[in-house]
Amino acid sequence: MTNRTLAEDLALLLLEDTGGFNPRRSAEGLFAAALIFELADLDRLELFDEEHRLFVKDTTQTSDNLLNDTLARLAEAEGSIVRDALGLLAVGLLDRVMTRLAATGLVRAEKQRRRLLFTTTVWPPTETDTRHAIRARLYAALAAAAEPDHRTELLLAFLHAGDLLDVVSDQPEHAERAESLTEKLWARNPELAVFAEQAFQGSGEGVIPMI
After folding, report:
1. N or C: which end of the chain has fewer CB within 10 A?
2. Which distant-in-sequence residues (6+ apart) come within 8 Å of 206 by Cβ?
């Protein structure tokens, strides 16, 4: 049983071998969306009115400190539209997510000098079995070799909604399977579909733009 958040699993999937992320995609924005998505699935959040303003529905603590901190920050910003909430949460989130992964030995922090004066932190993987296991569960669900558990289903729906499925597979038949599984999840939890739509709207590539 994993004790990682959806954002951390997403980070492992998106992380390049060099320890960085695709610059066309805002890792911070994607991680923020994953945290909101997970809290929505836990029935902690709700949306109101035609602008889909976000409110905390249940302040009960979860079993994870990062999710709890996210919930507290969203409570302070109640009434925000989803996109504004993402911007609030995204600040500094990449370092927080990757530091947690480093603490469990899955990545390491490495400073790199850029243009003589500036340094940046990259996060090369130090253990790949976990990432491979996540990808294997997703691939098995896409290949209809196994029915996904709820966590795998949730991550798959997030990847599909964000046009990120290519981190697992680029086969057309797998995209169709992902759409089918996602639609089943949306049918059971229509509000979750709205959260995903609001998080990913306004980007031609289906990827949250840089915040």
Report:
1. N
2. 161, 162, 163, 164, 200
In-domain check, residue 166: no
Structure tokens at 163: 């046009």
**CA nearest to 114, candidates 3, 206, 23, 5:** 23
Q: Which of 149, 141, 137 is nearest to 180 (CA)?
A: 141
The single-letter code of the amino acid at 114 is: R
Residue 211 has pLDDT above 80, yes or no: no
Q: Is pLDDT of 140 > 90?
A: yes
> pTM here?
0.91
